[in-house]
Queue: 3 jobs
Job 1
Amino acid sequence: MDAELTEGGPVGAGPVSAEPVVAQPAAADGAAAGPVGGEPVGGEPVVAQPAGADSAAAEPGETEPVVARPGAAAGAAAGPVGGEPVAALRRALVDLREAAELSATRLGPDPAATALMAAVRLEERLDRGVEHTIVAVQGGTGSGKSSLFNAIAQMDFAEVSAIRPTTDKPNACVWGEGAEELLEWLGVDRDAWIKRDSVLEEHIGEFRGLILVDLPDYDSAVQAHQLTADRLLPLADVLVWVTDPQKYADPALHQRFAEVARAHPGRANVVVLNQIDLLDPSEAGQIARSLTELLVGDSLPSITVASVSAVTGDGVAALRQELTAHTAHRTAGLRHAAADLVQAARRLAEDTSATQVDAAWLAAAVAAAVDALVAEAAPGGQVAPAVVPDAAALRAVCDDWAVTAMDHLPDQWSLALAYAVGSPVNIAARLTQALSVLDLPLLPGRMARWWRGKKVARERRAEWERRLRGAIEPVVDRTLARPTAALLADISKLAELTDRVAAAGAAAGGEL
Ligand SMILES: Nc1nc2c(ncn2[C@@H]2O[C@H](COP(=O)(O)OP(=O)(O)OP(=O)(O)O)[C@@H](O)[C@H]2O)c(=O)[nH]1
Ligand SMILES: [Mg+2]
């Protein structure tokens, strides 16, 4: 992109307003969103750095943004990041992968595939470092994303037009060094990003490490635009959602808010109501309040609404200041990675928490199944070993097993139980083989009734039952008990692994 670089003003008109017209940061505890307020986000004091105070990498007196040059060496911050939090997340990734494999074996590809994709994404991010904060500007077509991007960056870089859609590839502006690998990972072309390092720039200290990305419209008629927006969305550490007075209540927009926020609950979001220059101030306030209420309805109560005009610059200074709350401490990247990890673990662990390997239940279930099969093999006290066990009776035993096992299993694991235990046909084959070698006498009904009252008969019956039990028990053990115990052990193991992953994620700041 051959952008002409103009420093110091938002696109379109006039300098950036130093005074926000409609202040927007959230309440100090972050609980109540609202369009109006005076405190910095999250209660963090936002200290505006004097220009150049934190700009060791900048040349003295440098005032022009530095245009990225292909092949430029990565800065000092590039390359794999060390540090205990990152090392802990890497260890947790190993657990997450093991948990995903376990889940895939037992429950099928979903949600294991989602967890594995998250693991790949996280590893790729950790390999490229988490000191940078990726802030993605996204929203519907023509809402003013590129205009706002330019206004935040204080230069004309992204193309703005009245013709829709305009942006078809992501643009980026980077503050500070060492973002090349991340930009490549984000799929931002070499000629579509620019570096800002001006010592005179407001907030340069807090913005150092910020990668601001302007996305194509997600609601585009052009499918490639949607795909680009969708691909980049999970990679961003902070999302800036841009909407306008016409589309702020669009159900499709709110559905997307809710879906994306649900998928990444630990991630910071800022909602921007742009184009407030088209409204009178009372109207702007009303729409901002209405948007806030809609966000509460989307289950996003803690999202801040920033009211701005990318054209006049109203509210942009306050928005820039709010962004510094996410970028100043350079921890948003780590927090996002950690939160994604916690989320992936939680999804995998869904339905495992209620489960404990219950040895007493298993022993009782084995005894009940054996009793049922012995009774079946010696009906009415008559010893008549069934060479071919009755199919209906076997199915009843298996059904009983499944019903009681399911009481001890989380819902989604019931099907896994059906796969784990032997089918009645398999059990029948094994029983037939086990019983056929017993060679027990067959007494016809009348003889049996006469014989049953005799003491010697009772003793012989007890002995035959003992032999029956001895033949049946190993079959029940192999076909029902052991596979069920292994399944319960896997559920416990999955719960343990995912607990560990979630704890590691939470310790690294990824509390959801
Ligand atoms: N009045 C007014 N017009 C704006 C504002 N922001 C953007 N515009 C205009 O809206 C039109 C679209 O702006 P863009 O910044 O290209 O919008 P976009 O969201 O990037 O659009 P796509 O790249 O097509 O998705 C342009 O004509 C801008 O000048 C604003 O705050 N107020
Ligand atoms: Mg655009």
Job 2
Amino acid sequence: MNNITQFRPGCANYGCVKPVARIATSTTGIHKYRPVCGHCHKASYGGGKWAVGVTPVKKDFCENIDGRLGFTCTTTVINGCQLDNDHINGDHANNDSSNFQTLCKCCHAMKSKMEKDCNGTKKTANWQSRIAQKT
Ligand SMILES: [Zn+2]
Ligand SMILES: [Zn+2]
């Protein structure tokens, strides 16, 4: 075990006050969280009911159909499993609903590729170091 205290944001969904669910912990002790709580995650794939008063931030289409990423989405979405909740600014500690957009897997992969910094390091490395700086 380690003593790293890491900010754990609240669930991104409207009306939900639960803390987000943890996906994994890196070898350096940094936790990786889902954008939503465990209850909402389950509900999103039909594994349970949405809590009363909770509205998901995730939409049922890719928001890049408006070309916001610099190209226009042409993916045909037939199931919600093709869609991701994306942190717009890449900061996984910022779970404000305004920091989310819904992207299909294709567009999300392109966004991640475009956001790699000039060293070629992945975005996840960046948000982990940003969290480390905050604590
Ligand atoms: Zn929730
Ligand atoms: Zn898309």
Job 3
Amino acid sequence: MATRLCKFPKGITPCPKCGNSFQFNARSERCAEDCCEVWIECICGYGPTSFKPEHKVEDVWGSLDKGTLLLATEVWAEEIANNTPTPPTEDKK
Ligand SMILES: [Zn+2]
């Protein structure tokens, strides 16, 4: 399994656990002969995609290049949107 530390100077969807939005570990793992899974995890270890394999990005080479990482960050944002509990509603005026 390959791991690479990625920095996002502009920030992406913050980690719901620690609030980090600038540094993430990009990981790639071979899941079949001609297919790899790519995903990102927070540096604190939080990774919503780690328990939803069907939501990882599939890439033939598992390369951690810009395009693949972009897809992985989209998956990350989507996962957090789906996993974060709805915040309490504000009092109505
Ligand atoms: Zn985190």
